[in-house]
Design brief:
An eight-stranded mixed beta sheet has the order 15-14-16-13-11-12-10-17, sandwiched between helices. A seven-stranded mixed barrel has the order 1-8-6-5-4-9-19. Strands 7-3-2-18 form a four-stranded mixed beta sheet, with no helix packed on it. The two termini are 33 Å apart. It is elongated and about 125 Å long. The protein is built from 15 helices and 19 strands. The chain folds into three domains: 167 residues; 294 residues, Zn peptidases (Aminopeptidase), CATH 3.40.630; 33 residues.
Length: 552
């Protein structure tokens, strides 16, 4: 072969290889790569609950399904409002096989969404979380935020499904792939409590310890998807109200002339969804004399979406002198504000570890306490703890401001002996006025920060931010970190990347191979003819003579 022929052969071979490589790359490119959020995986008293798998590698399918469809090798993609809970309940109860589930959550459309639409979404999300959180789900379940890309994807999948054949390696379609390591147990999850003090003013020669009023709110959340458990109302609203109350009283207490004869203790606690485990550890860590000095404690829980009615939950009977006095002080202020405060009594069962309200942990230590909440009844276990529906859109800044005004004015009248006198200590347009911008900014921050305790390290930036903010308004601020005790075991992998591949059918693959093979045969013949001639090409395909003929 001549040098020029060898060069031509080399170039042609390289082009052929490059053609094959580019074709394979084109077929392997992802149609989309999006962030998805995995259903929580945890064990409760050894019982496995939540999603028990993370890896997803199946063809996409949509509802409605053809009769007798086998979904064991399919990943079902469904917008939230198009997914019948009866269908999902049937698959879980009857243990039917499903390759995976991707639930598309509606994004906020602002004014475009009517109140009825928002109410429907909240209702469906609440029921969905109840179902998924308390069941063992053997297949991977992911959530994603719906957008135009998913709209186009669903339209294409519906076109494929209209042929009457589900997507598969034979028919082609879209393939959903989540490459994830096997979820591992979260080792030694911690809970961190943050506290700060506003010391009261002692009189000259007064050696007795001043009484203390505690303002408390838990800041962590729990929901079906830990990476989406923002808890704007429960209990972001309680945390924001506490910070604003701390800011207001720090101004009063900064001047010795207006400093009250009460210590005020502010506590941001963790472990709220887990029977307020952090509150129990926080109280247990106090010296007994400090606990005994607490006159009463006010716990703030879900105060961001009420308009007229707020509830005071107590463990002691309403006839108790302390409870009666506190309730009357709050009632006086609420009447002036034009709102209503009701009282609900629920006796605690010391032998039952289940704690419905945070103040019940105080009651177990014989400390008078109450919980202020927009909820009139105690939530069920692991419910109303900042789930998927609890977003910024569900929380109203004005509701938080009303709560701050109610608590601050009631406390001020108690501390300064102003009961029965119509005096607004924190009057609008005064130096002690409530700051709506402060409330809104902190509410916005909490509404975009997932706060599931087992996935928050003790040096997490969010915890550092809370400590820094409390330090701006109080003294002797410190963080108490401890292990989360109880019956819970949590697993990691809460967020992943979903790759959506467009897969060609086997018919296309066969056609592609036929075209590629024909091209290579023609290329081969061309190279042989151009370098050796037609005779050599014919000799290649000519049958060689047998050994007997050669011998003759």
């Amino acid at each position: 072969m001549s040098p020029s022929g060898e060069l031509l052969a080399s170039i042609s071979s390289a082009l052929a290889v490059a053609f094959v490589f580019l074709a394979c790359v084109e077929l392997g490119d992802a149609a989309a790569a999006v962030s998805v959020y995995r259903l929580i995986q945890y064990d409760l008293a050894g019982a496995p609950l939540g999603s028990r798998a993370a890896v997803l590698n199946h063809h996409a399918a949509v509802l409605p399904l053809p009769a007798g469809a086998d979904l064991s090798r399919s990943a079902l993609v469904a917008p939230l409002l198009d997914l019948p809970l009866s269908f999902l309940r049937e698959y879980l109860v009857e243990k039917k096989q499903l390759g995976g589930l991707l639930i598309l959550l509606p994004t906020n459309q602002g004014d475009k969404d009517s109140a009825d639409d928002k109410g429907q979404v909240k209702c469906v999300l609440t029921e969905l979380e109840k179902l998924l959180v308390h069941e063992q789900v053997p297949y991977p379940v992911y959530f994603a935020l719906d957008d135009d890309n998913f709209g186009n994807l669903l339209a294409d999948i519906h076109k494929i499904a209209s042929s009457g054949q589900p997507a598969s390696a034979t028919t082609g379609g879209y393939k959903l792939v989540v490459s994830s390591a096997e979820p591992r147990k979260v080792s030694s999850p911690t809970i961190s409590n943050i506290q700060g003090w506003l010391p009261g003013l002692k009189g000259e020669g007064d050696s007795e310890q001043l009484p203390t009023i505690a303002i408390v709110a838990n800041y962590d959340t729990f929901g079906a998807a830990p990476a989406l458990s923002l808890g704007s109302d429960s209990n972001g609203s309680g945390v924001v109200a506490l910070l604003e109350i701390a800011r207001l009283f720090s101004r009063l207490y900064s001047n010795p002339k207006t400093r009250g004869k009460y210590n005020i203790l502010f506590g941001l606690t963790s472990g709220g969804p887990y029977n307020y485990n952090g509150t129990s550890k926080w109280l247990r860590g106090f010296d007994q004399r400090v606990r005994e000095s607490i006159d009463y404690a006010i716990c703030l829980n879900s105060v961001g979406s009420w308009s007229n009615d707020l509830w005071m939950h107590v463990s002691k009977p309403p006839e108790n002198p302390y409870i009666k006095q506190i309730f009357e002080e709050f009632s006086d202020v609420s009447k002036e504000m034009g709102v209503s405060v009701g009282i609900k009594h629920k006796k605690i069962n010391v032998s039952n570890p289940r704690v419905a309200w945070e103040h019940e942990q105080f009651s177990r230590f014989r400390v008078t306490a109450l919980t202020l909440s927009e909820m009139s009844t105690p939530p069920e276990f692991l419910e109303s703890t900042g789930g998927l529906h609890d977003t910024r859109e569900s929380t109203d800044v004005e509701s938080v401001i009303r709560t701050v005004r109610l608590v601050s004015e009631s406390l001020a009248r108690h501390i300064y002996g102003l009961r029965g006198r119509n005096i607004d200590v924190f009057a609008e347009n005064s130096s002690l006025a409530i700051n709506p911008r402060y409330v809104r900014s902190w509410l916005d921050l909490l509404s975009r920060t997932p706060r599931v305790a087992p996935f928050l390290q003790k040096n997490d930036p969010f915890i550092a931010a809370l400590k820094k903010e409390l330090s701006e308004h109080t003294s002797d601020v410190h963080v108490q970190s401890d292990a989360l005790e109880g019956m819970f075991t949590f697993y990691d992998t809460t967020k992943a990347t979903l790759n959506v591949y467009q897969v060609a059918s086997v018919t296309f693959d066969l056609l592609f191979l036929l075209v590629l093979g024909s091209y290579l045969i023609v290329l081969f013949c061309f190279l042989v003819i151009s370098t050796r001639g037609v005779d050599d090409l014919i000799n290649i395909f000519r049958r060689p003579p047998s050994r007997k003929l050669k011998g003759a």
